[in-house]
Write a structure and sequence with these properties.
The protein is built from 11 helices and 6 strands. β2, α7 and β3 form a beta-alpha-beta unit. The protein starts with a strand and ends with a helix. It comes from Enterococcus cecorum. GO terms for molecular function: metal ion binding; phosphatase activity. Its cofactor is Mg(2+).
Length: 235
């Protein structure tokens, strides 16, 4: 087994950094009282809950972007107008075009290249936005674009087993190690095709009630993750 497939958001880079830029600019009073981590995680939970409807065309992506900020702020007792929510999104999107890989990945990817290990990406989201992020990270230095799979471009999404099977078939993989930060999308999805999976739980999210029914290895820090992967691969 010499293949590793990665999730993108909150796995290869820290989305809280561009989010915080928008937070400090547009909601400074709230930012002084509610941590960016609390606000980010609440907004992401709202966004994740709406993702399937978005993929099915039942709700527009711009509506999701507004709702997640408005409802997340409301959860902490703050009112945000639609115009302010979209201004927040515009700033967030700008800084999403200026991303950097988490420190440690570049050296790890180079080692994998030297060892002939297959590297790939499976990510949920619209094609234009996810490609913008991947290019901003300059990920094509290590993982060619042909090995990037974006849900919005194939009408499949994690945790559906079909998106993992599609990737296997296209790239002729028997199995692969999968790495992601979302239990619901990454751990559940990879388990459906019997891929070993590392849950990169650096946000310290709670395990779901049914977590014991899935096979996975939980890691909390990037150094721990990269060490575990190197041991698994024998590099």
């Amino acid at each position: 087994m010499r293949a590793i497939i990665f999730d993108l958001d909150d796995t290869l880079y820290d989305p809280m950094q561009p989010f915080n830029q928008a937070y400090q600019k547009h909601l400074p009073q709230m930012a002084a009282e509610v941590s960016v981590k609390q606000f980010y995680l609440k907004s992401r939970a709202i966004s994740d809950a709406l993702f399937e409807k978005q993929q099915l065309g039942q709700i527009d992506i711009n509506e999701v972007r507004k709702i997640r900020i408005i409802e997340a702020a409301k959860a902490f007792g703050y009112e945000v107008t639609e115009d302010l929510a979209m201004a927040f999104q515009d700033t967030y999107a700008y800084y999403q075009g200026h991303l950097t890989l988490l420190e440690g990945y570049a050296a790890f990817f180079k080692k994998c290249q030297e060892q002939g290990i297959f590297l790939g990406v499976i990510t949920n989201g619209p094609g234009d936005l996810q490609r913008k992020k991947l290019h901003s990270l300059q990920l094509d230095q290590y993982i060619p674009e042909k090995y990037w799979l974006i849900s919005g471009e194939v009408d499949l999404m994690k945790p559906q087993r079909e998106i993992f099977e599609y990737y296997q078939k296209v790239h002729q993989l028997d199995r692969a190690i999968y790495v992601g930060d979302s239990f619901e999308n990454d751990v559940v999805g990879a388990n459906q095709v019997n891929w070993p999976v590392y849950w990169f739980n650096h946000r310290q999210r709670q395990k779901p009630a049914n977590h014991a029914t899935f096979k996975y290895q939980e890691v909390s820090h990037l150094a721990e993750l990269l060490t575990a992967l190197q041991q698994k691969l024998g590099i």
